[in-house]
Amino acid sequence: MPSNRNQAITAAIDLLASGGVRALTHLRVDERAGLPRGSTSNFFRTREALLLGVCEHMVARELPEIAVGFSANTPEDFSESLSMLFRHLVGPSRKITAARLALIVEGSHDAGVRSALSAGRKSIESSVLPALVALGANDPLLGVQLIATCFEGLFLHVLGRHADIDAEAVISATVRTIFTPVKTPQ
Fold first, then answer.
1. CA angle 34, 19, 49 (to 5 degrees)
2. What is the pLDDT of residues 143-156, one digit of tens each?
3. Is residue 14 assigned to a domain?
4. 92 occurs within a structural domain
């Protein structure tokens, strides 16, 4: 059985995913989690602490899932791993991904959330970088940025706009770009 703290974080993620940051209050988290009034504030004294706790939890939960997918032998395998990851993040992990989008918007004017999201992104990027190096990407650091930007844009379109996008084609094109040899002028 999850601890009360984990129940509070799960409820906070649900609220962020369904109603954005405006929906997130300590009282609503207590109610959503079925916890006694005041429980969430015992774990997270401030709203900022609650937001940071959610950010840390999301990274801790997703990092192992993400790291497993990057033992590809070819760029094509890598592309397929990314596509599977994307399907997972907008499928079974949809709530966490929607909550992350809400936090990204909050981070535009909240330095603490922005810093926590940045640290989480760096952790995730560092798990992707070795695969790009091993597979011979032209510029692995740029490749990581391309993948992150691709995913974030796809999340906005798929979850935010409910757009009908062929995400696999977009991911595949991004990976091809990362591994396409750079032509030098002659």
1. 65
2. 999 999 999 999 99
3. no
4. yes
The dihedral built from the CA positions of residue 139, 171, 151 and 153, taken in this order, carries a sign that is: positive
Q: Is residue 85 part of a domain?
A: yes
Is residue 21 exposed (0-12), middle (13-18) or buried (19+ Cβ within 10 Å)? middle
Structural domain including 164 reads: 55-179
Q: Looking up tokens 């032209």, which residue turns up? A: 138
Whether 40 maps to a domain, the answer reads: no
Q: How many domains are there within the chain?
A: 1
**Residue 100 pLDDT > 70:** yes
Among candidate residues 26, 49, 53, 51, the one with its CA nearest the CA of residue 39: 26
Q: DSSP characters for 36-92? A: PTTHHHHH-SSHHHHHHHHHHHHHHHHHHHHHHT---SSHHHHHHHHHHHHHHHHTT
Q: What percent of the chain has pLDDT over 90?
A: 72
Tokens in use for 41?
A: 């504030």
